[in-house]
Write a structure and sequence with these properties.
82% of the residues lie in helices and 0% in strands. It is an all-alpha fold and 233 residues long. The chain has one domain.
Length: 233
């Protein structure tokens, strides 16, 4: 079952360009437990994002992304503390609830309406870091924030790509210091990697055959439905 989850997550990420962690995290937390699922998801996502960072690095607006990542680095340990101390059932439900809320916001087209301010970036980065450390899902608030900006779509994509890759690395470093990133997590990620990256390749090739808007709607509704089931399981 975890292998199937990885394949589906890879296909969705390849077609839509987002959502790998949001697809994987709730079912993997249910199947593997949060202390194993969180590092596994971060490992898979960090490797997936790395080549994209190299391709888009020249477009990154550091003035926008820098404060977000700085705040993320500060609050990831707080999320890691919750991962170590909170009840597994509570974390599982929190993960599912995060996916439901942000999927609903994306589905309805909600976007942050303010300007890109340093203070706003720090606040959202702090929120993202805590979420990332505890559940492996830190991207949604930053995605909603950056998508609302005045930048061209290629610049926004570059900013998002850097944030995902860098925040995953920050999260993995924190987990390593806490002893959560271990051989068991690495082995599980290695086992799931062929399915995830194979699905990513398939999804990328299928992208042109889908109506992007409708597929995103379908994906978000699917994630909401799966997460709702896990929330009350």
């Amino acid at each position: 079952m975890p292998a199937l989850v990885a394949v589906v997550a890879g296909v969705v990420r390849g077609i839509t360009g987002f959502g790998g962690a949001m697809v994987m995290a709730p079912p993997l937390v249910l199947l593997l437990g949060p202390k194993l699922a969180v590092p596994v998801v971060l490992l898979l996502e960090s490797v997936a994002a790395a080549p994209q960072v190299l391709q888009t690095r020249s477009l990154v607006r550091w003035r926008v992304v820098g404060p977000i990542l700085a705040a993320t680095a500060v609050t990831v340990p707080l999320g890691g503390y919750l991962l170590l101390t909170a009840d597994a059932l509570t974390l599982r439900r929190a993960t599912a609830l995060i996916v439901i809320v942000f999927s609903a916001l994306l589905l309805h087209g909600w976007r942050y309406a303010g300007a890109h301010k340093v203070s706003t970036g720090i606040a959202l980065g702090g929120l993202a870091g805590g979420m990332l450390g505890a559940t492996s899902i830190g991207g949604p608030p930053v995605i909603l924030y950056l998508l609302a900006g005045p930048d061209r779509i290629d610049v926004t994509r570059a900013n998002l790509t850097l944030f995902v890759a860098a925040s995953c690395i920050i999260g993995l470093a924190m987990l390593a210091t806490q002893g959560i990133l271990d051989l068991d997590a690495a082995g599980t990620a290695l086992w799931l990697a062929p399915g995830y990256y194979g699905g990513l390749v398939v999804g990328t090739r299928l992208f042109s055959r889908f109506n992007d808007a409708r597929f995103r709607q379908f994906t978000l509704l699917l994630m909401m439905a799966v997460s709702a089931g896990i929330l009350f399981a």
